[in-house]
Design a protein that fits this description.
By secondary structure, the protein is of the alpha/beta class. α2 packs antiparallel against α3, α3 packs parallel to α5 and α4 packs antiparallel against α5.
Amino acid sequence: MAAASGRGRFITLEGMDGAGKSTHLATIAASLRAQGRRVLVTREPGGTPLAEKLRQLVLAEPMDAVSETLLIFAARADHVARVILPALERGAWVLCDRFTDSTLAYQGGGKGVPTELIRALARQAHPGLSPDRTLLFDCPYEVSRDRLQRAGRPPDRFEGQSRAFFDGVRDAYRGLAAAEPDRIRLIDGSRPPEAVPPLLEAALAGL
């Protein structure tokens, strides 16, 4: 969906846990607010009371990959209808930690859910809505694992997956970036945190 006059912008942050997207979310929000933008920060799965309940199920309860995908899209549909679209229509800039690219990478690339199913569900959950810009934080598996281990918190059901799973996730993300270079901007997440803000500024230029 192209950004129309008076409509806000929809910016998503993607990447494996430990690549830096959550670290820099607040930096991006502060920068946009300093430019006079109204900014809404949200996340997926989550962002509404219902979606947060579904998030807890997805992160904690064992389930097959298709069931997981369906729950994620149930949460997404509620989030889009109740939070994202109304904010965009008010002229706010929406910063969302993960969106459908995550499902294509994690459930598709990591767990083998057919891309056709994911894209069909996306057409139902958010018809006509696509991010105006996606920042994809990319780093090697070893970097993301080291950062998560140093964080010292127990891994959730996704963070505890195998190396092969994360290789599939990263390959899927990089394939999406190659297919949509105008929308998806690759950010080198292996750089020190202080070196990343100039990359973000360049990636968001022109919105």
